[in-house]
Response regulator (Chitinophaga agri), 130 residues
Amino acid sequence: MKTKTHKVLIIEDEGDLCLLLNILLEGTGTEVEHVQSIAKAEEYLLHTIPSLIILDNRLPDGFGIDFLGFVKEEHPSIKVIMISGVDAAAQDVALENGADAFLRKPFTKAQLHQAVTELLNKEASVTSAF
């Protein structure tokens, strides 16, 4: 039985967190790539469309919340998990701007797995919505 591999793009400028996310996503049927800025993410999206983006809010060249609108407008099929540890109000704004899930740093492996699994399974069976 062959399972579909989902592409996941991590947009995060902290190398340690990128490594940790890679480790946490092992065994979830995902192929993980990462970039460290909004500019690199825009370049990536020109030739590759991932199933899921894990998007940090504070990046060297802007805010993930602002980039979220671009992603949802240009690629509405991409699911987005917004992550942030700084601003509690970011959660409401992220969800209003189209984020499919929000994880506040620090989050657990279980929280990450649950969000990833739910969003990638939604893609396969849209009928199981809330």
The chain has one domain: 1-81+95-107. Residues 109-124 form the longest helix (16 residues).
